[in-house]
Amino acid sequence: MFISDDEQSICQARATVMMYDDGSKRWLPAGSGAQAVSRVHIFQNPSNNSFRVVGRKQQADQQVVINCPLVRGIKYNQATPTFHQWRDARQVWGLNFGSKEDAAQFANGMMHALDMLSGDAGACPPPPRPPQNGPSAEEIEQKRRVNSATKSQDKSPVSPATAAPLSRTRPGSSTGDSTDMEKFKQDILEEMRKELQKVKDEIISALIEEVQKISTG
């Protein structure tokens, strides 16, 4: 299958491509071999305002299972939230999407293409293309819920054994200790003053005795 340089993918989704068999009145997987999920694109060629749906199996051979030009007047039917279908000139096509998000994304792209083909000047721009790899919206929501539950467990009440013990200091005890220490300092200073005065008196007495001895001699 050839993709021209002028074509660009405006939408893509993962889906199983189906074809309706009028003879057996049932849906059959498109392509040959075992049924497999495909990467389905809507390609636009801005130079001639044409669109087509192209899907390849996500297998080693990347078999093309749908290459359907979109034309004016096609009716796109969203039969269920995850199964959509439409009819071209030869075949009824069905897409069985893996998620509602993929289905809604592809439906928006298809509506844009059909509006452009019908000449609707007010057609909305194509939806942004989601990354080919990465978690789906459902996986992101599930991960968010798990993280929320983990955080709730981390916020469990603190047990009495791990709680910080309360201080046993009685109210006002700090002030009392300070007063006692100040009194103790004052007592020491008073004793030192007494000792110094005693030494001073002894020195003076000794000097007086020496002076008297010299005078009498």
UniProtKB/TrEMBL annotation:
Source organism, top-level taxon: Eukaryota
GO molecular function: actin binding; profilin binding; SH3 domain binding
Cellular localization per UniProt: Cell projection, Filopodium; Cell projection, Lamellipodium; Cytoplasm, Cytoskeleton
Gene Ontology biological process: actin cytoskeleton organization; axon guidance; neural tube closure; positive regulation of actin filament polymerization
SMART domains in the record: WH1 (SM00461)
Pro residues bias (residue ranges): 124-133
Protein name: Vasodilator-stimulated phospho-like protein
Organism: Labeo rohita
